[in-house]
Amino acid sequence: MISANLSAVFYLISGILFILALRGLSSPDTSRQGNYFGIAGMVIAIVVTFLSVGSFSASLAYVIFFLVIGGAIGAFIAFKIPMTAMPELVAGFHSLVGLAAVFVAIAAYLNPEAFNLGVIGNIKLASLIEMSIGAAVGAITFSGSIIAFLKLRGIMSGSPITFSGQHFLNLILGIAIFVLIFYLCKSQSANIFWTLITISFLVGILLIIPIGGADMPVVISMLNSYSGWAAAGIGFTLENTALIITGALVGSSGAILSYIMCKAMNRSFISVILGGFGADNSSDSTKEKTDQKPVKSGNAEDAAFLMKNASSVIIVPGYGMAVAQAQHALREMVDKLKKNDIKVTYAIHPVAGRMPGHMNVLLAEANVPYDEVFELEDINNDFANSDVAFVIGANDVTNPVAKTDPKSPIFGMPVLDVEKCKSVLFVKRSLSPGYAGVDNELFYRDNTLMLFADAKKMTEDIVKNLD
Amino acid sequence: MEIDPFIFRLSIFILSIFIGYYVVWSVTPSLHTPLMSVTNAISSVIIVGAIIAALAGSSDSVFSTSSIFGFTAIILAAVNIFGGFLVTQRMLQMYKKKKGKK
After folding, report:
1. Which residues of B touch A355 (CB under 8 A)?
2. In what order do the strands lie in the sheet with A312-317?
3. Whole-model pTM?
4. CA dist., res. A184 & res. A198, Å (int)
5. Considering only CA atoms, which of A356, A346, A319, A363 is closest in space to residue A83?
6. pLDDT of A372 above 70
7. Model ipTM value
8. Do B37 and A93 touch (CB under 8 A)?
């Protein structure tokens, strides 16, 4: 048994270690060390909790037992999961944090003495508010993440689900949460507590179903943020510094990522949350255009010829590359090109893929050195001086319409200037518009050669033709 | 007059938000995915609450309603802690390999 003051000091230390864990991610070189700091912080927090409770009864054995079970499941998932499945894994993990927050809040509500919060029916007012906020945000995080998980996994359609009165319903439920918390404080009634949690689960579902697949980077970041705020709410309840610091860190981290993602799409956070984007795509005008305009299409041989004779190539990967698992074939192709003294770099749009940094991880998996991979603003000027842009699985993020047509829904979104390259190779299955439902003008440019095929197969064919 | 301890905790919270703000902006965009998985792992420090709830039962009744919620939360958080840190490690390892090859 250690004193409350001493354990508070240790919780502070573990909070600081968590800050260092995030700090480490400022560069790939320090990132692994950062992760060790994070692990150390977690070990300290858990050990101190055991020591501060101090009653080593039969319960302890069970705690360790369940800890090991959970840990084994987690470790198994971590080693087995393919890198392309990272978005849904992260969404799944968010849901676990959310549910854990709900359960801890429930446990605290049912047994307030264990947490020093008063007695049943007479919980300290501040604690009651804190735990109900923690429970509500946790429940929203849980059900929202489950929906995000199902959409990312493809179990549920990625297209937005909307119905009339949806926003009004959400508003009512949102207000209901606050009203319920107010009455919970007045009456301490268990029924209100359960209703609060149920409604919060519902809000989480309703919040995410209208949001479409390509807005997922924002959704995942947002849920990341929520899981942090839920943890912070519980941290206040438990008067635990480690939890408060972590909650604040995670909360602001997720919020910043959401901001970066929204900015990269030139959309406001509100419009993403309201959802429905890309629901009614392919307007008539788009279809007409597709019929009228001539498109140059080629095969792997043409592409290989073009690239062989280039002196610099920029690769633009997108979600399609992840779906086709083409990153390894791509790396092989790049190796061949490099042998011919062709300079190859990668250009990554912030919202390429389904989560922040998605493409970077896939390229890292395929052993692409990270100093060949550039972000939008660092590489965009290079397109004008390059011979070939190889667009694989990306679409909307290359559409020049975003710069030229104020009427287009994606107008103003920062895009990669691929059309400035001498020639553009565009690997795609068909001419269908991208997620935003906007026809890509790039398809019909004179310097564009469309390669209609599966991304992986096409890349492999190009590799063969490069010999 | 004494200051309510809540104010101290609130101060820690607000200051941590600021720290988070500046630290996260300095994270390189190529590591945004590991950032998400590691924040996931550290937010599972919520396990401390779960442990307290689970250990609250007396030796003759290990499983009360509240401690069952605690035990379940321990499993959930443990999946996240191990899964989160290990998958982050796995990703960061890939960023290393390439450097070695260069």
Report:
1. 32-33, 36
2. A373-375, A343-348, A312-317, A388-392, A423-428, A448-452
3. 0.87
4. 14
5. A363
6. yes
7. 0.91
8. yes
